[in-house]
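Honest question from a wet-lab person: if I give you the sequences of every part of a complex, can you actually get the arrangement of the whole thing, not just the pieces? Trying it with mine:
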Amino acid sequence: MNEITSTIQVVPLEYYIFLSVTLFSIGVLGMLIRRNAIIAFMSIELMLNAVNLLMVAFSAFRGDAKGQVFVFFIMVVAAAEVAIGLAILTMIHHNRGSVDINALNKLKW
Amino acid sequence: MNVLILISCLGLLSLFVGLSDSLRKYSLQVIVAGIAAIFVLNVLNWPLENTRFYSDMVNFDHYAVAFTGLILFVSALVFMLSKDQFSFDEKSTGDYYGIMVFTIAGAIMMVSYSNLAMLFIGIEALSVSLYTLAGSRKTDHGSNEAALKYFILGAFATGFLLFGITMIYGASGSFNLLEIAAYVNGTADLPYLFYAGLLMLMVGLLFKVSAVPFHFWAPDVYEGSPNIVTSFMATVVKIAAFAAFYRMFSTCFGAASEHWSLILSGVIVLTLVVGNFSALTQTGLKRLLAYSGIANAGFMLLSILALKGDAQSALFYYSIAYATASLGAFSVLILLSEDGKILSIDQLRGLGKKNPVVAVLFTIILLSLAGIPPTAGFFAKYFIVSTAIANGYLVVSLIAILTSLVGIYYYFKIIAALFSAPQEGSENTFGEKKSYILILCAAITIAAGILPELIIGLLR
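Yes, you can. This is the full assembly:
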């Protein structure tokens, strides 16, 4: 455990923050620009994993296990969320034959 | 504590009751009885000795117990309203009820957390259940669309919330609200990391309470979801989201208020203006109620801006007034329209002649939403505005008062429709229908308006 923590600390903390912010921004942009629901799901996963990465980095630098435990919570909830999301998507594909977000225009935005 | 465990067990019980064909028709009675029992237990918790449980993960103080009681009470009313509402999928009724009960469990976590991990789990338990409920009419395109929009934007908001939590953890080294508060109070020069985290957290929470400019999902999701689910979202879920928002800001970020109060003021003004003016142009009752919910969110945010003094009891009173009034309005919607069909305001014309009882009760509800004395809605707005002014937010409070005058116009448009002559060639058949929930909501609205001190005194 200590070995992993010291390995993580080889890279300065700022680099982890920059990397996570970049990954998070890519996720946000993907959500806003791409119109395919599957890509939107992938973007959400990217956002959540950017959070996980940052959480683990903070946790290692502080020598505090709480952050790592939180990461497990995020993983579990993300899995549950995607399960629901894919079920919704399957239902929509079943009814309409498309997962394009633009095709969903019955309710005005 | 035990309330949280029992409500989760009630959800499981409902799933099992739903399994057998012979027991399924009793599932509603089982749940309402269960919630009533848990409500009584919760009230018995009021004289507190020890409030912190599970290694300080939850804190059942008076605030938490009061909001838990309100959530349980309103959900019991929603359940009573839900008779026959899931008839499109008779075999799965137990599942829908079970999911709704799990939503309540999430809501209770959201009002009683004292650790950000618990807040996250609560929000997710609530949201994931709601995504499912929003899409519960599986073959209806509107319901499908509502579920997908709610899911994508909800997950997006969760991402922001988590990023905020992570940054605050990075700055303060803790998820515990009290330790974060100690960090905020004890650090003279807070790092940028902390402010970035605070802003992200705020964005995530503002999404959940549907404040402008993060409101655009709300009208669509409200309109597309089945009526009973919409009434659940507009009452229970909204109360829980605001209680969580207030709890976090009053415990942790009071000392750093100069850094977020300006942004929050801007959001409040936008929410009030956009909510009220968008509601003006609506013709469908359900969508109008959705925008009225956004406008009310602006008022409730005002208590978070005020933060000190009586803001807590003002928020609690507003939650009661708003929940009963909007549940009353939704019970009228459920009474008069079918799922998936839009009930326009014009279709309400002539209700005053054909069914005067419902029309008069609905008028009381609308007066409360508009904030006319002596209903609860007036005192709710009065308390919130007076605490905001007492804490020095005069301009925002004036804007709140002015925009609620706009609100009066569209609520009176409905009242005028109720008591005008029916449309020619309309085939509305709301003859003999009645709703006990509507009567109860109107009664509470008036009772809370006549005796506001009783409720306000609870959390003082």
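Two things worth pointing out. The helical segments of chain A are 2-8, 13-33, 37-62, 66-96. The first helix of chain A runs from residue 2 to 8.
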